[in-house]
Write a structure and sequence with these properties.
Blueprint: H1 8-40, E1 45-52, E2 55-60, E3 66-73, E4 80-85, E5 94-101, E6 107-108
Antiparallel strand pairs: 1-5, 2-3, 3-4, 5-6
Length: 111
């Protein structure tokens, strides 16, 4: 029994379906590389964030856990930062934390 040869349309369809998957993998690898190099390569600068909370958003995930999101101003460039917090904050309450600025200028903290 001979196998039927694949059509050109079938090859194009498979390529179109796999292209987004390849893009997502490359995007994930790039993002992961940027985050890792920001934290582990080059000079790290420690800053103390003492900023009032601009916005508080509670969120319940699929597992039923309450997650707290706060928004405050970046003390370096005054851009808004949305952060997953460990507790509930009131708007106007001061968020205080020791954080680091990495190689690519991104603010981060391990704890």
């Amino acid at each position: 029994m001979a196998l039927k040869p694949k059509s050109r349309l079938q090859d194009i369809s498979v390529a179109i379906l796999l292209l987004p998957l390849v893009f997502l993998v490359l995007y994930g690898l790039t993002l992961s590389g940027l985050i890792t190099t920001n934290a582990y390569l080059g000079p790290q600068r420690i800053i103390f964030v003492n900023q009032p909370v601009i916005k508080y958003e509670p969120f319940i995930n699929r597992a039923g856990n309450l997650i707290h999101y706060i928004t405050f101003k970046n003390p370096i460039d005054n851009s808004a930062i949305r952060l997953n917090a460990t507790r509930k904050y009131k708007i106007g309450e001061i968020f205080s934390k020791e954080m680091k600025i990495g190689r690519w200028g991104q603010l981060y903290s391990f704890n």
